[in-house]
Design goal:
Protein name (chain A): Rab-GAP TBC domain-containing protein
Strand order of the largest sheet of chain A: 1-2
InterPro entries (chain B): ATP-grasp (IPR011761), TTL/TTLL_fam (IPR004344)
Largest sheet of chain A: 2 strands, antiparallel
Distance between the termini of chain B: 33 Å
Number of helices of chain A: 24
Radius of gyration of chain B: 22 Å
Number of strands of chain A: 2
Structural class of chain B: alpha+beta
Oligomer: heterodimer
Organism (chain A): Paramecium octaurelia
Largest interface: A-B, 26 and 29 residues
Distance between the termini of chain A: 46 Å
Subcellular location (chain B): Cytoplasm, Cytoskeleton, Cilium basal body
Number of helices of chain B: 13
Helix content of chain A: 55-70%
Radius of gyration of chain A: 25 Å
InterPro entries (chain A): Rab-GAP-TBC_dom (IPR000195), TBC1D19 (IPR042507)
Order of helices and strands of chain B: EHEEHEHHEHEEHEEEEEHHEHHEEHHEEH
Largest sheet of chain B: 9 strands, antiparallel
Shape of chain B: globular
């Protein structure tokens, strides 16, 4: 952890608008006085809460000065071993994909479109192989339960804790214009991430969302730098990589989406820059794949440290609504991915990881909707299989953009992906009556093939119904 | 409320019309002749409406009949008549002391052949300007081309054009309109688009206008460019679905249609709430001003209503420009979303013009709510004609 000395703290304080506001207030408080002592300033600061504001500001600076370390090793050795196995599997898939791509070049009639290294079903299937492991001295602190994904000693919140935390959303009402204007001013004036998180939890006006995100990620005064960095990456895109082809194919699904087809070129450009961005590796919160170099392999991991996967385009798409400037869209996407979405593809016991979220969902559904949980098992249908797509891709493609952006607000608001647990539970509860009538997996698939419109508030409400 | 089932007739074999009528339990008129009169509800072509209202035919609609066009709708929906009426209305308004309408939404336009010489003068003043040439009475992008050189007018004159000509003899009898091409359209994803929005007029005197909350942007399939080499590439410049559907990049899944709701979210998020509000206010102004411009000339018949398709282009400053107004906006559906929109649109039209399948009298019309389905009342002159200014400002805020 990088420690700051007092001089450095003062320098950073002076770069914050809030510091100068506080200084101005103090000056105004003592405008008439000639001699001012430290005790006078302290008393004054305590009396009008300036001391609290200053403490918050300094804490914020100290927190931000901590270099974000990428999580590489998990506390559970079994999961480290699993990550290696997963990476090996992906290398094999890459070889297969490369061969398919070659065959397609040679034979135009070969239209096998499965040119991706892995998708959400592959990842879930891999996680579910944990159930089949035999108990062994290798798997300390690991228990395997056949009726659920996995049950290991990782700190999981109880179902009630999660439901209690997000219950406030049920009480949210449409805000009057006055309140919305107040929130707008708050976003313009606020800099502390804790305060921005509070706003994001409550309500983010569409017109100020981009500003809030930029401030939260501390990009609001860095547009030139973002532009320059993006321009450099764009230049590198002139050197074609094999992964570019996979990204182009991946973009096809987004190009058919009625809400995102207009952004198709921007999405592809962002992703091509992304896989060339060397700073991802040091900024990402968790290592997705084990960064080993495979001997004699034609392709290694991209400089990001992980393979692009199916539907990666979905993470970029909703952010295209926020700005006309592609370097801004890119910066937001990069930050969202490095802070949050990376956990959806990492085999880890970390709280936000796909493993943890899946276990949380299973826990809530099995305890609050045991009939549904049991019925799905009986008809050979896995609870997680039904929601894995929505979970991994944050409901992009399943909800309209305003609702997706509300999800992103809540992710920032709690600095966590937990909201996805609530929404997945709500999703299952919403379709529970039809699911209980399903006799097999085909019936279940038919239910979800019908035209449906899922909304954020509606799914949250369903999450709390039993 | 009437208990009898209404009889319907339609000149269009469109599912969104027929399914709507059937869903309401209405019965199809059994008379097979085109001139049959045994109907209550008729979704007609503009030509049949003209025939019905032709005094020579001696046909009079009864109180239990309603039809979907005003007799001389073309005053608004023919491109040359629209321009002529707007220019006339502007001249009239310029003489008025009271608040004038904002007319800055019509690109500089000349009607051929009559205004050819005026066009030539303007053309020479701005030699780098691109113009767009359109037949006055055609649709679906037919006959449209972009003009950079006067000689290109040979396409419509049939003879060579020289720079000293002061008259243009058109090969066909039809008029043309030539407008300044908006070469800085708002682009999303690098592509040009225009907006199709729906407006329902149930009465012209007094004017009563409803605006539909759903519409869509129609996107070109090719990246926009002002490169002269691409001036004839209609996939870059013309947004008509009838043209774009022939592009290699056309998708059956979305049909190049981007919902108005999504566009509003984009504009608000990327440009700000105030920018969105200004844009919508300007669009409402276009609708009201254009309708007001023909209020005095349209034959206001109580048996008529009209659902217009407004085509509006946004420029890079988010300023909307009026392209044209369609009397028979396409009811063909290209995607499931499109079908859903148009089904609800027609349903809501009839919920307004025939509430509870009844022919409302004036009192009942006055008592109608200001929101019916996806339609919101944009303007009702009968509410307080003396305070039109205040009423107009209130109504435009209904949109949000």
């Amino acid at each position: 952890m990088q420690q700051l000395d007092n001089q450095e703290i003062l320098m950073k304080l002076k770069s914050q608008k809030q510091f100068w506001d506080i200084k101005k207030k103090i000056k105004q408080g003592f405008s008439d006085q000639q001699k001012i002592g430290i005790n006078d300033i302290q008393k004054f600061a305590q009396s009008c809460e300036i001391e609290d504001q200053l403490i918050k500001l300094i804490s914020h600076i100290l927190k931000k000065s901590k270099k974000r370390e990428t999580l590489k090793e998990d506390q559970i050795e079994f999961l480290n071993t699993s990550k290696i196995k997963w990476t090996e599997l992906l290398f094999k898939n890459l070889d297969i994909v490369h061969q398919k791509a070659k065959n397609q070049e040679e034979d135009d009639t070969n239209t096998d479109s499965k040119l991706y290294i892995y998708d959400e079903k592959n990842l879930l299937a891999f996680l579910q192989t944990f159930k089949q492991q035999q108990p062994s001295v290798l798997y300390q602190n690991v228990q395997f339960q056949s009726n659920k994904l996995l049950n290991i000693n990782i700190p999981l919140k109880s179902a009630q804790q999660i439901l209690d935390k997000y219950q406030y959303i049920l009480l949210q009402e449409e805000l009057p214009e006055e309140k919305i204007n107040k929130i707008r001013k708050q976003i313009e004036n606020e800099h502390l991430d804790t305060e921005l998180e509070k706003i994001a939890q409550t309500y983010v006006p569409n017109g100020e969302r981009c500003l809030l995100y930029l401030k939260y990620f501390e990009f609001d005064h860095q547009e030139t730098v973002l532009q320059q960095n993006f321009a450099k990456l764009q230049k590198e895109c002139s050197n074609q990589l094999f992964f570019d082809e996979l990204l182009e194919i991946d973009g096809h699904e987004i190009s058919e989406d009625t809400f995102y087809f207009v952004f198709q070129e921007q999405i592809l450009t962002c992703l091509k820059c992304f896989i060339r961005d060397k700073t991802i590796k040091e900024n990402i919160r968790i290592q997705l794949q084990n960064g080993m170099k495979k001997e004699h392999a034609e392709f290694q991991l991209p400089v990001t440290g992980f393979f692009p996967f199916k539907n990666i385009s979905k993470y970029v798409a909703p952010l295209c609504y926020l700005s006309t400037k592609i370097h801004i869209i890119y910066a937001l996407f990069k930050e969202f991915f490095c802070r949050y979405f990376c956990f959806l593809h990492a085999i880890s016991s970390e709280y936000n990881s796909i493993l943890s979220l899946c276990m949380q969902i299973e826990e809530i559904v099995s305890t609050r909707s045991p009939k549904l949980f049991h019925h799905l098992k009986v008809i050979g249908c896995d609870t997680l299989k039904l929601i894995i797509h929505q979970l991994i891709y944050c409901f992009v493609g399943d909800m309209d953009p305003p609702h997706i952006l509300t999800i992103y607000d809540q992710i920032i608001g709690h600095d966590s992906l937990e909201i996805l647990v609530i929404l997945c539970v709500g999703f299952l509860n919403k379709y529970k009556p039809k699911l209980l009538l399903a006799k097999n997996y085909e019936n279940v698939q038919q239910i979800f093939q019908e035209l449906r419109e899922d909304k954020f508030q509606e799914l949250v409400q369903f999450a709390y119904k039993q | 409320m009437q208990n009898r089932k209404l009889k319907w007739k339609s000149d269009f074999e469109k599912s969104v019309i027929i399914e709507n009528f059937v869903n309401r339990g209405w019965i199809k008129s059994q008379e097979k002749e085109e001139e049959s009169t045994d109907w209550n509800v008729y979704w007609a072509t503009v030509w049949n409406v003209r025939n019905i209202f032709n005094p020579k035919n001696g046909f009079r609609l009864n109180d239990q009949q309603i039809i979907n066009h005003f007799p001389n709708h073309y005053e608004l929906t023919r491109k040359d008549c629209m321009v002529k009426n707007l220019k006339r209305f502007k001249r009239e308004q310029d003489k008025e002391v009271l608040e004038t309408f904002n007319f800055d939404f019509l690109p500089t336009t000349y009607i051929f052949p009559g205004e050819y010489s005026l066009f030539v003068e303007e053309f020479h003043r701005n030699p780098n300007q691109t113009w767009i040439v359109k037949p006055a009475a055609r649709s679906q992008g037919k006959g449209i081309f972009l003009l950079r050189k006067i000689q290109q007018l040979k396409k419509i004159s049939g003879t060579a054009i020289t720079s000293n000509m002061t008259q243009l003899n058109l090969a066909s009898k039809e008029n043309y309109v030539v407008s300044r091409y908006i070469d800085n359209p708002l682009l999303i994803g690098g592509k040009k688009f225009d907006l199709r929005m729906y407006v329902l007029v149930t009465n012209y005197k007094p004017l009563k206008v409803w605006i539909y909350n759903k519409g869509f942007g129609r996107f070109c399939n090719e990246q926009y460019t002002t490169d002269v080499a691409e001036i004839e590439n209609m996939f870059v410049h013309l947004t008509n679905v009838a043209i774009q559907q022939y592009s290699d990049k056309y998708s059956q899944k979305h049909g190049g249609k981007y919902s108005i709701d999504a566009l509003k979210l984009y504009v608000e998020s990327a440009y700000g709430t105030d920018a969105l509000q200004r844009m919508m206010d300007d669009i409402h102004n276009i609708m009201l001003t254009s309708l007001k411009s023909v209020q005095a000339v349209i034959q206001n018949d109580k048996h008529c209503f009209e659902m217009y398709g407004y085509d509006i282009l946004l420029d890079s400053n988010l300023k909307p420009w009026l392209i044209e107004i369609n009397a028979s906006p396409s009811l063909t559906t290209t995607t499931p979303v499109d079908k859903n929109l148009k089904m609800n649109l027609i349903n809501d039209v009839y919920n307004i013009v025939l509430p509870n399948d009844d022919f409302p009298d004036n009192d009942q019309k006055q008592q109608q709510p200001t929101k019916v389905g996806g339609f919101t009342l944009l303007y009702d002159e009968s509410l307080d004609p003396n305070n039109r200014k205040t009423q107009k400002r209130q109504s435009v805020k209904i949109w949000k």
